[in-house]
Amino acid sequence: MESASSRSLQLLTLLQTGREWTAAELARRLEVSERTVRRDAGRLRDLGYDVTSRPGPGATYRLRPSMKIPPLLLTPDEVATIITGLLVLEARAPDDASVAAARAKIEQVLPAGLRRRAAATALATQILTDAPSPVDWRLVGTVADAVATGARLCFDYTDRQGLESQRTVDPYRHILRRRHWYLIGYDLGRADWRLFRLDRVQAPRTLPGPHHRHEFPYDSIDDWLVSDFGAHPRASIDVPDQYS
Question: Are 49 and 112 in contact (CB under 8 A)?
Answer without folding.
Answer: no
